[in-house]
Amino acid sequence: MGHRLTQIATRTGDDGSTGLGDGTRVPKDHLRIQALGDVDELNSQLGVLLAEPLPDDVRELLVVIQHELFNLGGELSIPGYELLKAEAVLRLDEALAHHNAALPRLKEFILPAGTRSAALAHVARSVARRAERAVVALAGAEAGAVRAEPRQYLNRLSDLLFVLARVLNRANLDGLGGDDVYWRSERMGHPAS
After folding, report:
1. How far apart are the C-alpha atoms of 50 and 44, rounded to whole Å?
2. Is 37 helix (H, G, I), strand (E, B) or coil?
3. Is pLDDT above 80 for 137?
4. How far is C-alpha 51 from the geometric centre of its chain's CA atoms?
5. 189: helix, coil or strand?
6. CA separation for the pair 120, 113 (Å, rounded)
7. What span, in angstroms and rounded, lies between the C-alpha atoms of 73 and 111?
8. pLDDT interval class at 1 (50, 70, 90)
9. How far is CA 84 from the centre of its chain?
10. Running DSSP on this structure, what letter comes out for residue 14?
11. Under a CB-based contact definition with an 8 Å cutoff, are residues 73 and 43 in contact?
């Protein structure tokens, strides 16, 4: 593969537009660019999570996911192009089932807290939900703008990140966790302890 980025500062976006992968230019506030930006932010959040101590299987999975998110971004950057494969959604389903099977059943809502790695997984989960909303908005605004796989992928990924946050709390690799952090609401009859 040749060198694709020969010049980083092109100044072509100074007018408030940006180029898509097919060469067309759109405003920087276009729904496609919003979706691209949210997917990029999600991938960056996973990069921060990968800087933490993680179980080997979780690390390997997150690296694969980063590559798949890059494919998803590539697909979003070229209207009509297909890069994210249906197998990627299946892989998330399988990982979700595998990791969830080892966890105790939830009886209460949990807070996005615990170990640093679990908290970072929750941040990535919330960014994944935003990216999903952006992709859904793009699909609603432009007929045929997005295939089903990108929407499905982001939906499954946010679920998987929730489960991985629970896994990471139990892994307790920083010594600050060990379990889920449960929501306590006086209104719901769960006083704070």
Report:
1. 10
2. helix
3. yes
4. 16
5. coil
6. 9
7. 30
8. very low
9. 14
10. G
11. yes
